[in-house]
Amino acid sequence: QVQLVESGGGSVRSGGSLKLSCAVSGFSLGQDPYAIGWFRQAPGKEREGVVCINTEEKSTIFGDAVNGRFTVSIDATKNTLHLQMTDLKPDDTAVYYCTGDCEARGGRWLYDYWGQGTQVTVSS
C-alpha cells in the first residue's frame, strides 16, 4: 500500500524560502518507475499543479506559476521527495499535497492519490 506523508510547511515572508518533504512508502524512488509530484490548493480555488516527475517518460514538468522558482529533488536513501521553494509570494499560500501517479499534459493535470497536505503561508 502506497503512503505519502508531507512535512515542512510553515509561514514565511514574501521573498523567503521553504523546503517541503514527502516521505514515500510502498514503492522505491531509487529503483521503481513512478510518477510523483506536488499540487496545491488555496481556499476557494481549484487544485493547481506544481510539479510532476515521470521516470518512464523521463520528464519533470513544473506549473507555470512556479517554474523558475521551485525545484524538486529525490533522496533515494530516505525514499523522500523534496520541493525547494524560493522567492515565495503571497499567491503561493496554499495547502501543498504530495501526489502519486500524476500527469501533466498540455496544461491539464491529473492526480491519482495524495497525502494529507502541509500548509504554506506567505505574508507580504
Describe the structure.
31% of the residues are buried. The chain is globular. It has strands at residues 3-7, 10-13, 18-25, 35-41, 48-54, 59-62, 70-75, 80-85, 94-100, 103-105, 108-110, 113-114, 118-123. It is mainly beta and 124 residues long. Strands 2, 4, 5, 6, 9, 12 and 13 form a 7-stranded mixed sheet that branches. The chain has a 4-stranded antiparallel sheet with strand order 1-3-8-7, with no helix packed on it. A two-stranded antiparallel ribbon has the order 10-11. The chain is 0% helix and 55% strand.
Secondary-structure blueprint:
Elements: E1 3-7, E2 10-13, E3 18-25, E4 35-41, E5 48-54, E6 59-62, E7 70-75, E8 80-85, E9 94-100, E10 103-105, E11 108-110, E12 113-114, E13 118-123
Parallel strand pairs: 2-13
Antiparallel strand pairs: 1-3, 3-8, 4-5, 4-9, 5-6, 7-8, 9-12, 9-13, 10-11
Largest sheet: 7 strands, mixed
Computed structural class: mainly beta
- Outline: globular
Which blocks of ≥5 consecutive residues have pLDDT under 50?
Answer: none
Mean pLDDT: 96
Q: How many runs of DSSP E, i.e. beta strands? A: 13
Distance between the termini: 41 Å
Number of helices: 0
Radius of gyration: 13 Å
Roughly what fraction of the amino acids lie in strands? Answer: over 45%
Oligomeric composition of the shown chains? single chain
| Helix residue percentage | under 10%
Order of helices and strands: EEEEEEEEEEEEE
